[in-house]
Design brief:
Blueprint lengths: L4 H4 L6 H18 L5 H9 L3 E3 L35 E5 L5 E2 L1 H14 L3 E4 L5 E6 L4 H9 L17 E2 L14 H11 L14 E4 L14 E11 L5 E11 L11 E8 L3 H15 L10 H8 L1 H13 L6 H4 L19 H9 L5 H8 E3 L5 E6 L5 E3 H14 L4 E3 L5 E7 L3 H10 L14 E2 L13 H14 L6 H4 L3 E4 L13 E10 L2 E10 L4 H4 L4 E7 L3 H15 L6 H8 L1 H8 L41 H21 L3 H20 L10 H13 L12 H12 L6 H25 L1
Parallel strand pairs: 6-7, 7-8, 16-17, 17-18
Antiparallel strand pairs: 1-2, 2-5, 3-14, 4-5, 4-13, 8-9, 9-10, 11-12, 12-15, 14-15, 18-19, 19-20
Helix pairs in contact: 2-3, 2-5, 4-13, 6-7, 7-9, 8-9, 21-22, 21-25, 22-23, 22-25, 23-24, 24-25
């Protein structure tokens, strides 16, 4: 028989997955025939991991995108606008990031045959293949299923990939390995009947340590952190009990929420039932119509953590017992990894290696190698620029994993891949092999390893080129990597293409999110600069945007901020504490000249985005009555609103929550009046009058509605106006500032469309 992937799949696909994929293939056919409603099919394909994606706004433009595009399985026509005639994206769930060599080789083959030969690792330990054809999706799913991978519920209103610390089982500071618990909860909740009626997505993570960032528990709907306590057993002796600290209601997105502590200790046998109880409460009480309010964080906020806790406990008490809640505990040992047998290396060879280190090895060992708690073994992080690996690199990595490890790899939340159980004596030969595959960049855990979401490359919501900017920053920082001050080298930079924080800009030391500004009739890409986030302690606190800077000036912005940190920091001071101490006003002053945009004639580069030399966008040019540029009332007002939102942050830094909330409300009022004045010339400064006029002229007419958020940001104005300034809580004030910032960005977009 000729060896093909089809006959190699025989007997390898689990029956339940086979049936599910067959059903999806039939649904594709029915939708094409017009026999399946598009809305129903849309959620169906999302729950199978199939996304529509942006394709350069429907235009072919080969040769200049950050990712070079080639379609082995078919081309698309200009102006393609649906999944039927344009490529999409397949998101592949990798629970807790766990991979093996066979799976890497499968991903490599699929990326070559159906995509652009690139596999992209995400910040949630998933893998994405872009530019696939919808008709090919069932075939990809079958081949993935044959190596133990599913795409089910990778997207849609479902429980997304459950993430976990990639160092689990090897970390020196963890109380125990969390891998088995992440695996068990994944299997238990996948396709569960009680988890099919959510209004939005639901994210879960497991962390081994409270002080590290590896699991980012506090930015999730449910975040588990490993914990232990001493208890007396039936014999009267003390023993150590394993369990978890549980947080609920976290999330980044447009307006981030820090998770609340649900329980300081959940016994391990309660992990599955308490998770199901929370999911059932979310399914019952979560918003269904307004997607902007349809996450668990809004349920927790509405009820309050005490009432939410009691509601969940009541739900838990009413659950019918399921043996799966504890059956997995008998198999915990199956997740204990055993190292590969040692290779036979002579003492003389080891001695020669130690005295003849290859170029770059020391830097690589310092940044990418982490000693395991098991003596003589190491975890080696392989840096993937922008989270991308070619098909050839994945195959090389599979070979390397087989050669030096028991075949254990993990995708990380920083878009890299970690090799586990590498012996001390294998570090040098492993480095040489990685270097041959162009996978030996000494950047893991450093400022050079910039995280980025897809941005305008492929995301329909992208406003600015996050990948283009991240690539530019990485290249520039890599040139001076070894000469960077140690305090700067350990910082994290994260970039999102819009406000939704898929690049996790809120928890970066230095974060950026894409926006746009209208300048002299042109639309210019900008990025909001976010400072003050905390990456450690599971993403414990969030930064705030301090102003929008032209995209072309962001590299200079990074240089200014890091130079300021080096020159003015106190001994042992973290970047977060440094920003808090000197204040954002001081930082902004240092950046003041970078906010300016030169004229198009003076420097046209400002009017294109990173990775794309074309004009970012061209608006209708007006004709002035004199040599000077005419500045509208709206432009002045929007600039004033940005100043006020920055002042709100200054109030927050001093602990004045009421002042911060008041100034944030003022900022929204100024922006609302700026937009409405042209349609209501006699508009006063009375807040009631401004809100009424804004609602009548811009909200009811849907002029304020953009294609994605519609009118949801207008509700931030209405809610804040109704609530007033009676805010004393720091978190509530911070949330109002975030909401005001989003309202102002929406106001800029509205002004751009109207002008």
């Amino acid at each position: 028989m000729t060896r093909t992937w089809k006959n190699e799949l025989v007997g390898k696909i689990p029956p339940d997955l086979k049936e599910e994929i067959d059903v999806f293939e039939r649904q594709i056919a029915r939708r094409k025939e017009g026999k399946l409603d598009e809305a129903v099919f849309g959620e169906t394909r999302l729950r199978r991991g199939v996304y529509g994606q942006r394709y350069d706004n429907g235009q072919r433009f080969d040769g200049v995108q950050t990712r070079q595009i080639a379609f082995p399985s078919g081309d698309i026509s200009k102006g393609a606008s649906t999944l039927w005639d344009a490529p999409g994206m397949l998101r592949i769930k990798i629970p807790y990031g766990g991979l093996n060599p066979e799976q890497l080789e499968c991903l490599a083959a699929l990326s070559e045959e159906y995509s652009d030969a690139i596999s992209h690792v995400t910040t949630r330990q998933d893998v994405q293949l872009h530019f696939i054809q919808l008709d090919d999706a069932p075939t990809l799913m079958r081949r993935l299923a044959a190596v133990g991978i599913t795409t089910r519920e990778a997207c849609g209103n479902s429980i997304r990939n459950i993430t976990a610390c990639p160092f689990a089982g090897t970390c020196k500071t963890e109380p125990f390995d969390v891998t088995a618990y992440a695996d068990a909860l994944t299997a238990y909740l996948l396709g569960h009947d009680d988890c099919q009626d959510f209004g939005r997505k639901f994210k879960i993570s497991f962390s081994g340590c409270a002080a590290e960032a590896c699991g980012l528990a506090t930015i999730h709907d449910m975040g588990f952190i490993a914990a232990t306590r001493e208890v007396q057993n039936a014999a009267g002796t003390t023993e150590t009990e394993h369990g978890f600290e549980l947080y609920v209601g976290g999330g980044l997105g447009a307006v981030p929420h820090t998770a609340k502590l649900f329980d300081a200790f959940i016994p391990r046998e309660e992990v599955l039932p308490i998770s199901l109880a929370i999911c059932r409460v979310f399914g019952r009480l979560g918003e269904k119509r307004n997607r902007a309010k349809a996450r668990l964080k809004f349920v927790v906020k509405k009820l309050g953590i005490e009432a939410f806790r009691e509601t969940v406990r009541t739900e838990r008490a009413n659950l019918r017992h399921d043996p799966r809640w504890t059956s997995f505990l008998a198999d915990l040992d199956s997740f204990t990894e055993s190292p590969k047998a040692p290779r036979l290396i002579s003492p003389a060879s080891l001695k020669r290696s130690a005295t003849n280190l290859p170029e770059g090895y020391k830097a690589f060992a310092d940044s990418n190698v982490r000693a395991q708690k098991q003596d003589g073994f190491n975890l080696v992080t392989v840096s993937l620029p922008l989270g991308d690996a070619t098909a050839d690199q994945l195959r090389a990595l599979a070979d390397i994993a087989r050669r030096y490890t028991p075949g254990t790899l993990r995708a990380t939340v920083e878009q890299n891949i970690a090799l586990r159980w590498v012996r001390d004596e294998d570090l040098l030969p492993l480095y040489r092999d990685l270097r041959a595959a162009q996978l030996a960049a000494a950047t893991a855990g450093t400022i050079v390893d910039v995280t980025a979401c897809p941005g305008t490359d492929t995301c329909k919501l992208g406003i600015a080129s996050s990948r283009g900017l991240a690539g530019e920053l990485s290249e520039r920082l890599a040139i001076k990597n070894l000469s960077l001050d140690e305090a700067v080298r350990n910082l994290r930079i994260k970039v999102s293409g819009c406000f939704n924080s898929c690049g996790q800009h809120h928890i970066a030391d230095i974060g950026f999110w894409g926006v746009s500004r209208k300048v002299s009739g042109y639309t210019v890409p900008h990025f909001q600069v976010v400072l003050g986030g905390q990456w450690t302690h599971n993403g414990q606190s969030y930064g705030l945007a301090m102003g929008a800077i032209p995209s072309r000036n962001i590299p200079a912005t990074v240089d200014r901020i890091t130079d300021l940190f080096v020159s003015e920091r106190q001994r042992g001071e973290s970047f977060q504490h440094f920003v808090q101490r000197i204040g954002k006003k001081h930082v902004r002053t240092a950046l003041e000249d970078l906010f300016a945009v030169p004229s198009h004639d003076e420097d046209p580069n400002y009017y294109s985005d990173w990775g794309d030399p074309r004009e970012y966008s061209i608006g209708d040019l007006g004709i002035g009555e004199c040599a000077g540029e005419v500045i509208s009332f709206a432009q002045f007002g929007l600039a004033a609103s940005e100043r006020k939102i920055f002042e709100a942050q200054e109030f927050l830094e001093t602990g004045d929550s009421t002042g911060a909330a008041t100034r944030a409300l003022d900022a929204m009022m100024v922006a609302a009046k700026a937009l409405t004045k042209d349609r209501a010339p006699n508009l006063s400064d009375d807040a009631d009058e401004i809100v009424a006029a804004f609602r009548h002229h811009l909200y009811d007419t849907e002029l304020f509605f953009d294609p994605y958020a519609k009118g949801k940001f207008a509700n931030y104005l209405f809610q804040a106006h109704s609530a007033g300034a009676a805010i004393t809580d720091v978190d509530a004030a911070r949330q109002r500032i975030e909401e005001a910032q989003l309202f102002i960005e929406a106001a800029h977009g509205c002004h751009g469309r109207m002008s």
